[in-house]
Every structure is written in structure tokens, then in C-alpha cells.
Design brief:
It is an enzyme of class 3 (hydrolase). Helix content is 36%, strand content 18%. By secondary structure, the chain is of the alpha/beta class. The structure holds magnesium ion (MG).
Length: 318
């Protein structure tokens, strides 16, 4: 396959905008790094809007609900970003329970993860248990009430949490093993790490999900990127023509694979890697030189790459 095209000229930036009608953005590493907006991104997205382009935000981060994301977008200067444009995996998990597993509203769902999951479950009529229950901060002891399985729990959702401890692992494991491992096990995402503040690389939700997968010896249903089901849901809800849609992200095994496997952009392709987050140019070079060394190698290679999405407005104004 052809090596990815580096976008570095005004003409290439113009062509990119002409080629696609719809833009799907990852958030961490693309729009912002923690609380810092990546320079030029807001102006580039405003430019897209002025050209009648449509967009949506798809993040594997499950710790914040759509409402919390709206507040963050506003805080960083974005105007008019509605809830319908934001797809965090906490929302994807709740909708998967409803739309695909047909778990009825009113059911209890055991949660290992931060607030976002509980909020989105409640919005769809579920009763989250576990999650932010303060008793999960207790020291572990085998007679603890929470280690007794609540028979009304109908599914388990696991995602990113900064409050990982033995009580949370041990209680969640009881649900994953319950009745011959028959409760559905949903994992919000497979991300190993993410670019955090102060230049730190920090553990992401996928490490929690895989911890629980290992200890329970169970596979999980991945509702985050690169899941095709998530892509289909977004394209359908937003009425995006797949062949005119571009995925923009900083992680090859989630974002770029999501765009490539989902056949965005039709025959020409529709994935753009930005180097403003967790992937550096040397990582891309390494992948191109050794595609076979990685499982799914070719589907991880982006169609195009650019130093940051905000660089587009800079190229356009030159
Ligand atoms: Mg990212």
C-alpha cells in the first residue's frame, strides 16, 4: 500500500477539506491535551463549519458523560456543541445495553469505572450499582456486603477509573463469574494509555478492562473505537455518508483502525493521523517499516498525517 501522505502544503489542506463532508474527531490528543486546547484546532473547526461541513466527536474516554463534555467544549471556547454530537464510550455502553442486548430499563447494572458510566446508564433508565459507592473505598475483607452478588444485576460495565483498588476488582469479579459467567461483560475501550498532563503517559480504560478480562478469564464486548458497531451507530444517527467521512485521531490501533476498517472515505480512504497526541512520527515510521510485526498492521496505517489538526488553519492562511 502507498505510504501515508504528509499534509504540509496549503493545496493539500484545501484538498482535504474539499474531499470530505463529515469529520469524526477523537478528543484527547486531537482537540485538547487534558485542559489545554491544541493551538489552531478551534479556528480550524470554525472554518469547517463556515464551509458547511458536519462533524461529531468520538472519544474512547468513558469517565465523563456527554453533559460534562459539553461543559468542557464550552470552557475551551467552542460554541453550539450539542449533546447529539458527542459520543463517549460511557454513552456507547449504555446504548449497547439498550439497543443490542435489549436489557430493559429499570434493570441494575454493575459498574467498575468513573462517573460518566453511571450518568449515562441513569439517562437510559438503568440503575447503576458499584461505581462511585463509597463503600468500595473500604479496606477489603471477605465478609464485606458488596462481595455478595445482587441477583437483580443484569450486566457489567467496566471502564476507566482513577479509583482502582482491590475492593473494586474483587466485587466486580464476583459479577463476572456469577452464574457461569452469564452476565454480559461490556468493556468501554481497549486503550492502553493516553497522553496526560505534564507530558506523562497515563494508564487508560483498556488496562482496567483487560485486568478484569484476565482475572475472570472472559472476553468482553468492546463498545469503543475501533468497534464497527459504534461507527455504524454514529453514521446512522448523524446521517453521514460513509464515503464522504474522515476520521481524525492520534491513536493508530483505535482511531485509525476505526476509520480504515469502517471503510470511511470510500475507495480513497478516510483516516488522518495527528501527531499532537500519543503517537510520534517515529511510531508511524516504525509501523510503516514493520507492518507485519503488528497484528492488524496494514489497517493501522493512516491515509494521511499532519502535525496537528490545528495546523490546517495555519496552512490555509499562508
Ligand atoms: Mg486520542
Amino acid at each position: 500500500m502507498a505510504p501515508p501522505e504528509k499534509i504540509e502544503l496549503k493545496k493539500q489542506a484545501q484538498q482535504l477539506i474539499e474531499q470530505y463532508d463529515n469529520f469524526l474527531f477523537d478528543c484527547d490528543g486531537v482537540i485538547w491535551l487534558d485542559e489545554k486546547l491544541i493551538p489552531g484546532v478551534l479556528e480550524t473547526i470554525e472554518h469547517l463549519e463556515s464551509q458547511g461541513k458536519r462533524f461529531a466527536f468520538v472519544t474512547n474516554n468513558s469517565s465523563k458523560s456527554r453533559d460534562t463534555y459539553i461543559e468542557k467544549f464550552h470552557r475551551l471556547g467552542f460554541k453550539g456543541i450539542g449533546k447529539h454530537l458527542i459520543y463517549p464510550t460511557c454513552y456507547a455502553a449504555a446504548s449497547y445495553l439498550k439497543e443490542h442486548l435489549k436489557v430493559p430499563a429499570g434493570a441494575k447494572v454493575w459498574v467498575l469505572g468513573d462517573h460518566g458510566i453511571e450518568t449515562e446508564l441513569k439517562e437510559l433508565g438503568y440503575i447503576p450499582v458499584g461505581g462511585s459507592d463509597p463503600r468500595l473505598d473500604d479496606e477489603f475483607h471477605p465478609q464485606h456486603d458488596l462481595l455478595k452478588v445482587d441477583p437483580d444485576v443484569r450486566a457489567v460495565v467496566v471502564g476507566s477509573t482513577k479509583a482502582f483498588n482491590y475492593m473494586r476488582i474483587a466485587t466486580t469479579l464476583q459479577y463476572l463469574l456469577h452464574e457461569n459467567k452469564s452476565l454480559p461483560f461490556i468493556g468501554t475501550n481497549i486503550d492502553r494509555s493516553y497522553p496526560g498532563p505534564e507530558g506523562l503517559i497515563l494508564p487508560a480504560g483498556g488496562s482496567v478492562v483487560n485486568y478484569m478480562s484476565y482475572t475472570s478469564n472472559r472476553d468482553f464486548i468492546d463498545v469503543g473505537k475501533p468497534s464497527k458497531r459504534l461507527l455504524e451507530t454514529i453514521l446512522e444517527q448523524r446521517d453521514f455518508d460513509k464515503s464522504k467521512t474522515l476520521m481524525i485521531g492520534d491513536t493508530m490501533y483505535t482511531d485509525i483502525k476505526f476509520g480504515n476498517d469502517g471503510q470511511l472515505g470510500g475507495e480513497s480512504g478516510g483516516s488522518l493521523l495527528v501527531l499532537s497526541g500519543g503517537t510520534k512520527l517515529k511510531d508511524l515510521h516504525h509501523l510503516i517499516e514493520n507492518p507485519a510485526s503488528l497484528q492488524d498492521g496494514p489497517s493501522l496505517i493512516p491515509l494521511k498525517y499532519i502535525e496537528s489538526f490545528g495546523h490546517i488553519i495555519h496552512l490555509l492562511s499562508n
